Amino acid sequence: MPLTDVIGGPRPGTPARRATPRRLLMCRPQHFDVSYRINPWMHPEKPVDTDLAVLQWEQLAEQYRSLGHTVELIDPVEGLPDMVFAANGATVVDGKVLAARFRHAQRTAEGPAYLDWFVRNGYQDVLWPEFINEGEGDYLQVGRRILAGTGFRTDQRSHAEAQEFFGRPVTSLTLVNPNHYHLDTALAVLSPDEIMYWPAAFTPGSRAVLREMFPDAVLASDEDAAVFGLNAFSDGLNVLLPSAATGLIAALRERGFNPIGTELGELLKAGGSVKCCTLELGDA
Ligand code: ARG
Known about the structure:
Blueprint: E1 22-26, H1 50-66, E2 70-73, E3 90-93, E4 96-99, H2 110-120, E5 126-127, E6 139-142, E7 145-150, H3 156-166, E8 170-174, E9 187-191, E10 194-197, H4 204-213, E11 218-219, H5 222-226, E12 233-234, E13 238-242, H6 246-254, E14 258-262, H7 265-268, E15 279-283
Parallel strand pairs: 1-2, 4-5, 7-8, 10-11, 13-14
Antiparallel strand pairs: 1-15, 3-4, 6-7, 9-10, 12-13
């Protein structure tokens, strides 16, 4: 059965949901490690099992494929242990590519590595940015709009640069909790007009903006946010998220989504999970 014919909605009365097949870019964590500390999750003194990270990542990629999505691969580069977090590699909207410029020296070489993939794969409208931005870690598309995070990584001036480049309205949101240093660790897009988020990750002003834009959003509990439950991918029906986020899983089911719990514990040691491993290229 083609993916687009899968209609969700386990409970009568919940909206019919439809999955849209997507093209996703991923990077095998062959050189994954925690050898430096640029967020509070990272403890370089603790061991990391790279083989297990690869296995968990393979399961995520396989899950995407089995749902009908296309997974493109970028070659991992030795010496770039965080390159598995493909979401940070760029932002793609309408086939236009805003390249990433990383905040920390340990990751700066990832920007050109990802940019090179886009150029070699025929993307023509590509911008090397003036301001620091960590790709789809801080830029999330919701329908026609773009939500943009700042506070830890992406420079707020990048938001105007992105709005000018993409020609889409960009809404700035400021993060305040160092454990949730990228927007995609505090907020996930579920459909063209639905999101879920953890209010405590944002300044009061940003919380008010989110309340106004998305009065019916799913709000995450502290517990679900703390296990990175918001670092999720949704195709409009299926929502892949860390399996420990049990409250969100129940809330999503209630709303007619099909939540799918995933195990990415090794990658969480670097402060990343489902969405971080996934750069969305657009519809397939
Ligand atoms: N260790 C990486 C960092 O701190 C993790 C990146 C997670 N990626 C994301 N999209 N949230 O930069």
